[in-house]
Amino acid sequence: MGQKKLIKFAAIKEYENVLEYPQDMQGKWAAFFGALEKETTNIHTEHLTIHPITKPLVVELACGRGEYAVGLGRMFPEQNFIGIDIKGNRIWKGASIANKEGLKNIAFVRTQIDQVATYFGTNEVSEIWITFPDPQLRWSKAKKRLTHPKFLRLYQQFLKQADASNKTGIVHLKTDSPNLFLFTLKVIELYGLNLVYKTDDLYAEATIDPRCLIKTYYEGKDIAQSNKIHYIQFTLDKDLPLSLDEVLKEAIKDIPLDAGELLRMQSYEQE
């Protein structure tokens, strides 16, 4: 491991706004952010108690450098935000910015995404953002896509039910991968989920949700050279029968993989 990475890993171990593989945090995030806001040092998560959520809690999955979590935290000081990623050297960037700016409504968790349901209680999370994740373009890796039903079933364990105004219970996907965009739409259609909004060219829309104007490091790279950003909002308002997973496996074989996606695949595999 390079010296710079070692320095960053050491730094986040001292950050109060970063938790690495925390235990028994279900239902305790209100208490955690309360302690963070009070600038409590040495927050011992094992001493936190379960409290009802008083501020909406929003989670960014595969947050990378945390640009979205930080950007949303700046926009909505009355909400709390958690970025989740396995790579601590990337989390360091967002956590450092939040600390420098005194943003006490932003935290980061270093862990694997497939463990996410162990960190939150029922109805504890208001919204989920998935921004520029690895699209896992090979068919053999489709189950690793963060909008695959395998992961959606995990999110259902802690995401609030959608309300009539579609202000809670929403999953947001923002990506420059046409393949992941079409795959996610296929999942929504096959499992009968509620599609709230979609666009295959976000910045060409007449009206853009201000939250979508936050840009990540990976968006700037435009690895797939698509020059388009795809965006979807949907809710997890239906059961996701396991029996349909095999149907999905066959259905996605019809989704095209263009030249830009092949470039992306090579880029991710070289990282």
Q: How are the secondary structure elements laid out?
A:
Blueprint: H1 3-12, E1 18-20, H2 29-37, E2 57-61, H3 67-75, E3 80-85, H4 88-101, E4 106-110, E5 127-131, H5 149-155, E6 170-175, H6 178-190, E7 194-199, H7 217-221, E8 230-235, H8 245-251, H9 259-270
Parallel strand pairs: 1-4, 2-3, 2-5, 3-4, 5-6
Antiparallel strand pairs: 6-8, 7-8
Helix pairs in contact: 1-4
Structure in words:
This protein is an alpha/beta fold and 271 residues long. The protein has a single domain (3-270), classed as Rossmann fold (3-Layer(aba) Sandwich), CATH 3.40.50.150. Helix content is 32%, strand content 15%. The protein contains nine helices and eight strands. The chain has helices at residues 3-12, 29-37, 67-75, 88-101, 149-155, 178-190, 217-221, 245-251, 259-270; strands spanning 18-20, 57-61, 80-85, 106-110, 127-131, 170-175, 194-199, 230-235. Strands 1-4-3-2-5-6-8-7 form an eight-stranded mixed β-sheet, sandwiched between helices. Helix 3 links the parallel strand 2 and strand 3. Helix 1 (3-12) crosses helix 4 (88-101). The protein is globular.
Concise description?
The protein is an alpha/beta fold and 271 residues long. It has nine helices and eight strands. It has a single domain (3-270), classed as 3-Layer(aba) Sandwich (Rossmann fold), CATH 3.40.50.150.
